[in-house]
Write a structure and sequence with these properties.
The chain is of the alpha/beta class and 475 residues long. The protein is built from 16 helices and eleven strands. The chain is 43% helix and 12% strand. Bound molecules: pyridoxal-5'-phosphate.
Length: 475
Amino acid sequence: MVDFKQDAGILIRLLEQYHEESRQKRQPVLQLPRLAELIAQLGLDRYVANGGLTGATLEGFIHRYLAATTRLHHPAYFAHQVAVPHYAGSLAAMVDGFTNNPMAIYEMGPAAAAIEYFIINWMLSKAGWAAMPPVPGEGMPGSHGAGVLTHGGSLANLTALIAARTRIAPNVWEAGVPGDLALLAPVQSHYSIARAAGILGLGKRAIYPLEVDAAGVVKADRLTAALRRVSDDGRRPMALVANACSTAVGRYDPLREIGDFCREHAIWFHVDGAHGASALLSPQRRALLAGIERADSLIWDAHKMLRTAPLCAAVLVRDHRDLEGAFHQEASYLFHAKRQPGVDLIHRTVECTKAALGLRLFMVLGALGERGLAEYVDRQSDRALEAYHYFQAQADFSCPVEPQSNILCFAYREWNEEHLRIRDRMIADGTFYLSTTQLNGRWYLRLVFMNPLSGMTEVEALANTLRVAAEAADW
Ligand SMILES: Cc1ncc(COP(=O)(O)O)c(C=O)c1O
């Protein structure tokens, strides 16, 4: 283990330098060398053939590796909804990588399982749902919620919809998928919803789009019409999905109205809060999720707005029986059949081997406290709003939608597909890293304020870069 201490020291030193040069913008936010050149440049063959990736050799390799990373710690990073991890979460990922406790069964990681149980209860309480009992299995049927951490929001959506499918078709694990199920979801849903429908064996035709307004937000007064379409086709609604918030523009669907509608018609109500559920931490913003208590399931990614190193996504259900029974033909509200001091979470997950995901979020929470994370959520959303007002005040820029989160879409003059080309140029020269999205048939540039260092300095510099590029553009 002499090498471990030495190599870990090298890595910490290089990561510290990396962090510093990124936050001070001494390197481009991203660089995209060609794949084959990069494989050669990293010298991968050599190490596989000869080994010896330690000490000075390791230092050289990691140096080259970091030079070809996309720098989330750079203030010009605005592209995707991926956390700029707090170092405490990254250290947690290292501890987990080292100890490797696949804790979906308690005996393979009691500390990790206990932390996950605790974290799930913390998240349940933020959603206003009853926590799991201190002694697993002692809760009354239906008296409390449950949850599990999983490797990403896409898998979390799939898990929640599996639970919904089992509720409406309890025989599904024996008899297969009934052909009359329907999934109602806004057009603006993340693609993982449609993908889950495919994996679940529903097929694309089973997805009924919910009508939305110009900002992509569900029109609650059009839900009845959507349900009528479902029943006219002879189908049964398996679940109805709402966004909190949407991926493209970051707006929240009206959960209270949708929740009332789902209750009235006994439809499973799933809330995709992968990005936006973190607003539950903020006293100022939690009203955006008013009505969440009416949902049957909620997903919430910590590796988006909770500064957590990848990955850590929660699937939460209001009634624990829904998750306990999700993967079985017969639901059971007992957490575990065997005698043991803890709890096995394996019955709730797609995965068998599962990382100690709770530790990643817990160590960030432990470092910043929940107030620190709430302040982060508020600060990032406030910055998006500030940028919105800035763009709206410029004659040559506009925003299609006022942001409710840290996601902001904007346009330069009348540009449409030109936004795609300009983004490609900025990526190529590494000045800014942002994304694009389509809304009502038009392309927009899209900023996601993930980095706590990004602010109006970057936004104004971006606006000027765009103006200069527009002058020089030959399209
Ligand atoms: C609303 C929403 N749901 C689900 C996902 C998928 O999450 P993940 O990337 O963790 O699989 C995303 C990702 O951006 C999202 O924005």
